[in-house]
Amino acid sequence: MTAKVLDGRAASAAIRAELTERVAALKEQGITPGIATVLVGADPASQLYVGMKHKQSLAIGMNSIQKELPADATQEDVEALIDELNADPDCHGYIVQLPLPKHIDTDVILERIDPAKDADGLHPTNLGRLVLNVNEPITTPLPCTPRGVIELLVRNGYDLNGKHVVVVGRGVTIGRSIGLLLTRREYNATVTLTHTGTVDMPRHLREADVIVAAAGVKHLVRPEDVKPGAAVLDVGVTREQDAETGKARVYGDVHPDAAGVAGYVSPNPGGVGPMTVALLMTNVVEAAERAAASAS
Length: 296
Fold this sequence. Notes:
By secondary structure, the chain is α/β, with parallel strands linked by helices. It has helices spanning 8-28, 44-59, 75-87, 106-112, 124-132, 144-154, 175-182, 201-206, 272-295, and strands spanning 4-5, 34-40, 63-69, 93-96, 164-168, 190-194, 210-213, 231-234, 238-241, 248-251, 264-266. It has 2 domains: 29-118, Rossmann fold; 142-273, Rossmann fold (3-Layer(aba) Sandwich), CATH 3.40.50.
């Protein structure tokens, strides 16, 4: 068996094309969706990631707002910038790039974000609303990476209804939040969350119709752990230095040989990663659409 590749680059390109049309429609109403980033310090990886987001948002016609503070910025400096973006009508959504410098209280900063402008979809208020809402349409920002996982499956014709999804990893970004989306009636999946404390994890994996591997452990999911025909989405990232070249190499949570057993597999990189950025922009465009509707 050779797995069908869930191409995140192709799916994210389709989403960006759709967003371009939606942004154009908003501009006809006099509204340009504005996405902002807050970067504290000069971490090269963070700078690269923020730059990619701005490049893609500009390409679909959005207003790109970059806010930067030095690494020695105080807690008060960062909070003042958050308040500025919360009050800015040209900013419909924004993210605070993590990690923040160690002297900054990250939880306080993230909770200070206006939930309506929470581009990541991880504000406690928005997660709480998601917990409470099983049946009704969602009108608040959704967690980007879990939403990206689901979009990648759905856009490849995968029906999640009644499927057993096993999630590996209990981080807030993916593990703890994806079950809230998958168990909504519109998807109707059953979710098992596993982690480092799970006894006999391979047994759970072998029972899964869908595996979402998001632990950040190199090749944690082995071919023998995968049920034939299962969908396997590789979300975790491990970076190791190559002994010969000295360059950093990126490894996923799923062993490459799992593709010989699975029915669907997302590559890493090139799978869920591009989807996360596309859904980040989707959250901001949706916020602009809600603002336009409330103003009319």
